[in-house]
Amino acid sequence: MLKFLLPLKILKLKAFRTFGLKPLQGLRGRGAEPHSLGLQSHPMPINFTISITNKCNAHCKTCNIWRIYEEQPSLSKSELKKEEFERIFESIGRSAYWFTISGGEPFLRKDIVEIYEALVHHCSPNIINIPTNAITPKLIEKRVREFLEINNKSTLIVNLSLDGVGDKHDEIRGVNGNFKKLLDTYEGLKALKEDFENLRLGVHTVISIYNADHIPAIYNFVRGFKPDSHIFEVAEERVELLTIGSGITPDHETLSEAMTGINKDIRSNYLKSGDFLSRITQSFRLEYYELMKKALNEKRQIIPCYAGYASCQINPYGELWACCILGSKSSFGNLRDVDYDFNKLWHSKKAYEIRASIKRRECYCPLANASYTSMLCNFSMVGKVLSTLIKSYFPFP
Ligand code: SF4
Ligand code: SF4
Q: How many A from CA of 218 to the centre of ligand 2?
């Protein structure tokens, strides 16, 4: 049902960002919250990321999340409990189109299945996306089967992180044998696809200074085993990943060089051979890759960013952020402090201040998750994607 309402929600989000609808102050003054009366002053986000743990069993060169509990083990006790997640999901309700369950390594949460079940029960999103480092093939396969047995309505995308072929992957991820385990995870999940048609398998590659010269090799390798999708994202310095000042982002020239051949191949081969869903996904990707390169080169928001309007992130301790790049700098507050009422933070004064800063384009980044939502909310981008899609049906290059 929600997918039919998506264009309408996008129009409302666009109006909200463009005209800056204010909270209904008159009601506030009389002690009533607009959302408690069903009169929301602006739309809810369509794209949520919940980070359910900061535990991680990898030691990636491009991310320092794994250090958090090595340095402060007791902090892990502060992560949201499943009952707390349930209350948050209840307050979010059915507004979400897309939910990402991330980490750390999300499969390390022993209660991930219960969290997943609560999410499906209260929010019923169209798409649930779970990234994984694929270090524990059997556990991941077992959990994914449990997810699929709970819910066959949402599309479940499991994205395996691949940053190199063979030893290169293990070296970047800091785990001997990770590459082999990733292949085992892929095979196990691929077998599940035969029983569950709502499962999609993706591969996610982070382009960093450690693998920028290795990107065509990764692309060709992944094309050989044909996952449902393969997305490249550029390594960014993020507050969330404790990578500020790490210098992991490749420069614009290196990135352009790495992506040129791939873009050409997607346009002339990959795009033309897939089904409709695959073609539209690839069309979005091609436009995203252009945005990613431009954002790094020009160091500005190339299209208006909808983080804090159409997308948001909840960290493992209940902080609600506009996005993970700004992390705590974009915090609307902690859900624990407002009795897990998402609406209260979403409509708070702090949220309006942070949105105003994003709207003034005081930050920029090539973050894929937020970029896709921003692209959906941008008519000219949607036009470009549709044009690429239509051209993909032409017989000539
Ligand atoms: S990128 Fe993912 S797998 Fe690697 S350390 Fe960070 S959270 Fe763990
Ligand atoms: S441009 Fe990037 S850093 Fe700024 S709000 Fe959007 S996602 Fe966050």
A: 28
**What residue owns the CA closest to ligand 1's atom 1?**
63
More confident residue, 111 or 272: 111
Q: What is the pLDDT of residue 155?
A: 94
- 36 pLDDT band, cuts 50/70/90, is very low
- How many angstroms does the Cα of residue 58 sit away from the middle of ligand 1? 6
List, for residues 229-279, the tens digit of each pLDDT value.
Answer: 888 999 988 877 888 888 999 988 888 888 888 888 888 777 877 778 778
Q: From 363, 375, 377, give the residue whose CB has the most ligand 2 atoms within 8 Å, as the site to mutate.
A: 363
Check if the beta carbon of residue 49 is closer than 8 Å to that of residue 313.
yes
Q: In angstroms, what is the span from residue 387 Cα to ligand 1's centroid? A: 36
Contacts of 16 (CB under 8 A, 6+ apart): 42, 43, 309
Nearest to 324 by CA among 349, 305, 347, 342: 305
With a pLDDT cut of 70, the percent of the chain lying above it is 92
Local confidence band at 25 (pLDDT 50, 70, 90 cut-offs): very low
For the CA of 135, the nearest atom of ligand 1: 3
Preceding omega of 104 cis (within 30 degrees of 0): yes
Cβ atoms of residues 154 and 167 within 8 Å: no
Mutate to test the pocket of ligand 1, among 62, 64, 105, 233 (most ligand atoms within 8 A of CB): 105
pLDDT at 51 over 90: yes
DSSP secondary structure of 232-300: EEE----TTTT-TT---SPPHHHHHHHHHHHHHHIIIIIHHHS-HHHHHHHHHHHHHHHHHHHHHHH-S
| pTM, entire model | 0.91
Ligand 1 atom, smallest distance to 54 CA: 7
